[in-house]
Structures are given as C-alpha cells and as structure tokens.
Amino acid sequence: MSKNPPPSEPESDGVPELFRDADADIILLSSDNQEFHVHRIILSKASPVFCDMLSLPQNLVSEKPLPIVQMSESARALTILLEHIYPELPEHHPVSFIDLSSIGLTDIKLGLELSRKFQMSRLRERFHKSMLARAKEAPESVYAIGWEMQMNDVVQAAAHESLRNPLVPGTDVPEFALISALALQKLMQYQRRCMAAVNIDVPRFRGSLSSYQRGWLGAYCKLVNSALAEAPHEETVTNLKYIALSCGGNSTFKYSDFDNFLEGTLATARAMCIEKLADVRPSL
User: Which fold has domain 17-92?
Assistant: First the structure.
C-alpha cells in the first residue's frame, strides 16, 4: 500500500520582503502555503477580527520559532490586506497594491471582501472610492461588482456611466457571472427608459438668435437627439462631432466660432439632459 506523501513545507519565495521580517512575532500561513512573518500589535490595532484571532492560543510548531496562524486567504489576498495594514512601507519595498489606480477590478473586489471580513472601515472606504472612480472606464463590470457587494451608490454611478454606450446583445462582461439575471435586466430597463426620456427641447433655446444661429441650433438638436436615442448621457450633447456636423460638416470648426453663444447653448443642453436623466430613477 502506498503511503500518503508528506505535507509540503511552507514557502516564502512569493512573499514580499516586508513580511519576512526578522523581528516578527507571529506567522500567518496562507491557503497556498506561503508564510507571512508579521507583528501582532500592528494586526491587532488595524482590525478587531485580528485582535480577537490573535488573543487565542496559537499553534506552536516545534521546528518553527514563532506561532503559526493558518489563514483561509491566499498569498495574494494577504499581500493586498497587509500592504494596507502596515503604517508605512520602506522605500525599498516593491509596493504592489497600495496604488489602487494601477490594480485590476478583481483585486479591488478582493480588497473589499477582505475589508468587510476583517472589519476595516477605512480600508473599505479606500476600495469603495476606487470602485466609484472606475465606473466611467468599466461601467458594466463595476455595476456587477457593486451589485454583488451591495454598494448602492456604486451601482447607481455605474448604471449612469453605462449610458455612454448602452449594452447590446452579446456584450461580453465576465463580471455579469457574479449577478442574477434580474440585476442585469434592471440595468437594461434603466438604459431603455433613459433612451426614451432624454432629448433636447428646441423651443427652450429660442431667443434673439441670428438666422445662422437658429439654423445651426435646429441641425444640432436633430443630430444630438438622434445620438441620445442610442447614448443618453449628458456628454453626448457636448460631443464636438455633432457640433461640427451641425455646421455643415466643417472639420475645422472650433468653439470660438460661436463665442459665448455656443458655450451657453452647450451648457443649457447639458443641463437639460441631466435634468431629464434625473427624472429616470433606476429601480435597482
């Protein structure tokens, strides 16, 4: 009968140097068998969950100089968590996750889950703000993560930003696997309601306009309303493409061609669009 292979020895090759400190007083062992040599006092002050966890008797292994705490988190998850727990990182430490603008949504989601598990409100707020900042560049992905994490303001912001380029059948968004069909249906219903509700009302612009200004305004509103039917976002109305096409397709058109009239018109159109969007409440 063959014997079971012996358990693999813990490793630390993939652990940042900061968490292999010689003066550490405890070891966190990740689910993928990586050792993090860390300090009780820092962990306990950062998280009430760590405080309670480390107050319990620890597992002493004869060949190890420090007690070991077996964690359910992977080495990547612990690195994200610990890099935000430690108060100041040495200059030589190659930071991986502190700059949230440079990491992916998967790691931001992982950070949110960790901050919730370890009851770290300030860390959760950092990742929360990063999610809001990503709504413009990846609205559907942020919407799905926000929905799963029950972050209503993130869901609302992402739904609004999705109006720049509403979903079409077959759109591939991996994060949609995180949410129910109902959640996706609500997003698509919101987009359709905005498409139906938002348009630029020409009569509200009437005033002392020259014939050329009135002609431009009519052409501009026609083009923009057509565009809003597909992308009902306030930035659609300030798209230079529609402004230039309204002037007969002049590709050299500049804002200065209409001076204050153009600036005022676009500001009014944008405000009108925002006002009508505000009337369409997402049922999220």
Answer: Potassium Channel Kv1.1; Chain A (3.30.710)
